[in-house]
Amino acid sequence: MLVTLSPSKGQDFDIPMPDAEYSVPAQLDQSQILIDELRDYAPPQIETMMSISENLANLNFERFQQFHTPFNTDNARPALFAFKGDVYSGIDSATFSKDDLVYAQDHLRILSGLYGALRPMDLIQPYRLEMKTKLKNPRGANLYEFWGNQITDSLNAELEKQQEAVLVNLASNEYYKSVKPKQVNGRILNIDFKETKDGNTRIIAFYAKKARGMMADFIIRNRIESPEGIQDFDTAGYQYSSALSTKDKWVFERPQPEPVSK
Question: What is the radius of gyration, based on Cα positions, of the chain?
Answer without folding.
Answer: 19
